[in-house]
Amino acid sequence: MAKHIAVAGNIGAGKTTLTHLLSKHYGWDMQLEDMDDNPYISDFYEDMQRWSFNLQVYFLTARWKNIQALRLGKKTVIQDRTIYEDAHIFAPNLHAMGLMSTRDYENYKDLFDTINSQIEPPDLLIYLRAGIPKLVHQIQMRGRDYEDAIRLDYLKRLNERYEAWISNYKGKLLIFNVDDIDFQEKPGDASEIIQKVEGALNGLF
């Protein structure tokens, strides 16, 4: 039986909404990104260069704890964002943009590699692919003050890294293009996603 389902995607792709939808349908426990309690997120968007390393180490630690907890538990858990996104997308993007020093990035990579050797990938990864206009619209709709400072070039770079990561992902994977569907407002779209998740979990895809 699948024990760990994860939802991946750029900022504003709809991860939390889909996590809620699938959790409600299947009765799965949820692990959500709790941005409101994140001690670095607001500072990070105000000054990325100063706070990038702190933020990424915070995320890495939190997600490692979450993975340990779900593997020790007995229930199926659906996770909003994965530890791999931090390591393959967010941290290297910050380094490439000059927003994380090489020294800090190498330190971060060593820490992730150590953790990665001790964890297993999700039983199913669901990737939400979204274009920049869709991301911007959904970010604006949820109205988080600290996200007002997100730049379009930052979202674009993240999207490029997501696509590179997904193209090389080796585990069980489902991809949904959220530019073409609206699982929050259209029951038919939600049903189609549930049907494909069901097929993936039961080995039909």
Task: Provide the fold topology.
Elements: E1 4-9, H1 15-26, E2 29-31, H2 41-46, H3 48-72, E3 77-80, H4 83-96, H5 102-116, E4 124-129, H6 132-142, H7 152-167, E5 173-177, H8 187-201
Parallel strand pairs: 1-3, 1-4, 2-3, 4-5
Helix pairs in contact: 3-4, 3-5, 4-5, 4-7
How would you describe this protein?
By secondary structure, this protein is of the alpha/beta class. It has one domain: Rossmann fold. It contains eight helices and five strands, in the order E-H-E-H-H-E-H-H-E-H-H-E-H. Strands 2-3-1-4-5 form a five-stranded parallel sheet, sandwiched between helices. Helix 4 packs across helix 7.
The amount of helix comes to 55-70%
Number of helices: 8
Which class in CATH terms?
A: Alpha Beta
CATH superfamily: P-loop containing nucleotide triphosphate hydrolases
The shape, in one word, is globular
Q: Unreliable runs, pLDDT <50, ≥5 residues? A: none
What's the SSE pattern? EHEHHEHHEHHEH
The radius of gyration computed from the alpha-carbon positions, rounded to a whole number of angstroms, is 17 Å
The N- to C-terminal Cα distance equals 16 Å
**What is the CATH architecture assignment?**
3-Layer(aba) Sandwich
State which percent range the strand residues make up: 5-15%
